[in-house]
Design brief:
Blueprint lengths: L1 H17 L2 H5 L10 H21 L1 E3 L13 H16 L3 H5 L1 E7 L7 E7 H25 L12 H13 L1
Parallel strand pairs: 1-2
Antiparallel strand pairs: 2-3
């Protein structure tokens, strides 16, 4: 599972190394309300919430940075990815399976917070899936900019499996 998380973060890094500052920070209006950089910061905030929550055994995805250098500075975003990959590679099986609590808002009409029991492994699965979802948004932003993204960027694992099986069927 850790290797899969590293692969997801490698995709993020490949995107960052393939784009430029203008494309990374541009908000393509009226199609989008945020930049690729804002999506990347949002992705990395979720991984960082896991890192911060690990010691306290309490993850809170709602405490995010919002804004900052990762949204505007490609090198800063790459450095953050490297930091997260180093953290992931340091994890033991016991740490991955340790129970912890997760706090998150669940309602869009009023403030309603739920706290549930989870594990670090489960939350990493979520962070990876969440990242891929936002990669798909970044891919659409790139298309609107008439730019491109790395192969398989924004393609969910189950979709990739389906596409491979379809290719074999042809």
């Amino acid at each position: 599972m850790i290797n899969c998380q590293i692969t997801i973060l490698d995709q993020a890094q490949a995107y960052l190394e393939s784009t430029n500052s203008f494309e990374y920070t541009q908000i393509v209006r009226p199609l989008f309300i945020s930049s690729a950089g804002a999506h990347m910061r949002h992705i990395l905030d979720h991984y960082n919430a896991i890192i911060l929550g690990m010691n306290e055994q309490f993850i809170d995805y709602d405490k995010r940075r919002r804004g900052g250098n990762i949204e505007t500075d490609l090198d800063e975003a790459v450095a953050e990815i490297v930091k997260i990959k180093t953290f992931l590679l340091s994890l033991s099986s016991a740490q991955l399976n340790r129970q912890m609590s997760l706090s998150t808002e669940v309602s869009v009409t009023e403030k309603q917070i739920e706290i549930v029991t989870t594990t670090l492994a489960r939350e990493l699965v979520f962070a990876g899936s969440h990242a891929i979802h936002h990669f798909a948004m970044i891919d659409q932003i790139a298309k609107a900019q008439q730019s491109s993204t790395p192969d398989q960027f924004g393609i969910a694992p189950a979709t990739a499996t389906f596409l491979r099986s379809e290719k074999c069927a042809l």
